[in-house]
Write a structure and sequence with these properties.
By secondary structure, this protein is α/β, with parallel strands linked by helices. It contains ten helices and eight strands. Strands 2-1-3-8-7-4-5-6 form an eight-stranded parallel beta sheet, sandwiched between helices. Helix 6 links the parallel strand 5 and strand 6. Helix 3 runs parallel beside helix 4 and helix 9 runs parallel beside helix 10.
């Protein structure tokens, strides 16, 4: 089925611990994302990049927080841009570090209106710290706490335009979760399939169980894909590499399954840091994965020369 797709760049790196993610949107464009989706028959518009708002924020008791005002300004701008995406259009948000999800998910929840928004979180990390519990000071570890309303981020951040109930979130691929996050996940009741679960039961079973819930509820589905969900051997361009991630085939199976169910209404591509890439291989893989979500099949894949 032909879709109307809007590419929205989010050149955000203020939430991460190292620079480089601001180049992510242009790397995905250079790797041919628009061309690949158009070749599948979709109508694709590149809407350019979001620009952060300028904000003044009061001091926070946690002295470790980095770039707090900049992160607040980005979150404000991103959620407004996401909420303004026309109904019926599938936005693909080109990141940018994973703080972007604070804005994209809140904005998509606002756009969903009376329909429940579900979130598929594909990541090595749960990103459910709040501003007080993060001991790294990197605010890209907080978006889930923000868009679920689990913690009050005001007056430092704008209030979320809308929130997502924790029971409507499924996290697949977790393998680096600290003690405060583990406690928060248990208290929130988020559905988690960590990499041990994937090893024991496969990656498709927890995904399809979650998709069945989305379908039964008639909900929208936001997919948030962090590069570090993938094993660093196939996707080195990320500042938070964790061994033991999803394989090439597991990642494609997820995307192909999402296409088969036809429920995804928005997508994040987060934490691509081209400064750490090898000849663009991670950006190219991300484009290939997005193509799978939008209908590219195994039989469509030519053999690449090496």
């Amino acid at each position: 089925m032909t879709k109307s797709i809007q590419l929205i760049g989010i050149p955000l790196q203020d939430g991460a611990g190292r620079g480089g993610c601001l180049m992510g949107p242009d790397a995905l464009r250079t790797a041919g994302l628009e061309r690949a989706l158009a070749a599948l028959g979709h109508a694709v518009e590149d809407a350019g990049n979001v620009r952060p708002e300028a904000r003044d924020v009061p001091p926070h008791p946690n002295p470790l927080l980095k770039n707090l005002a900049a992160c607040a300004g980005w979150t404000a701008a991103i959620q407004e841009a996401a909420a303004a995406v026309p109904a019926g259009t599938v936005p693909v948000f080109l990141g940018g570090d994973h703080l972007m999800a604070a804005g994209t998910v809140a904005g998509m929840a606002k756009r969903a209106g009376d329909r429940p928004l579900f979130v598929l979180w594909l990541d090595a990390h749960s990103d459910i710290h709040d501003l007080a519990t993060t001991d790294s000071g990197n605010i890209h570890g907080t978006p889930v706490a923000y868009f679920t309303g689990r913690a009050d981020f005001t007056p430092h951040f704008p209030a979320p335009l809308a929130t997502v109930a924790p029971e409507r979130i499924c996290m697949i691929g977790l393998r680096s979760v600290d003690a405060p996050e583990r406690a928060a996940l248990g208290e929130a009741g988020i559905d988690v399939a960590d990499m041990r679960h994937v090893d024991e039961h496969g990656i498709k079973a927890p995904l399809e169980a979650f998709l069945a819930r989305v379908e039964e509820a008639g909900g929208d589905l936001h997919v948030s894909l962090d590069v570090d969900f993938l094993d660093p051997s196939i996707a080195p361009a990320v500042g938070t590499t964790v061994p033991g991630g999803a394989t090439f085939r597991e990642a494609h199976l997820i995307m192909e399954t999402l296409h088969d169910w036809g429920l995804a209404t928005s997508l994040d591509l987060a934490e691509l840091n081209p400064f750490l890439d090898e000849r663009g291989r991670t950006a190219t893989l991300m484009v290939d994965l997005v193509s799978s979500l939008f209908g590219k099949s195994v039989l469509d894949r030519p053999t690449r020369s090496h």
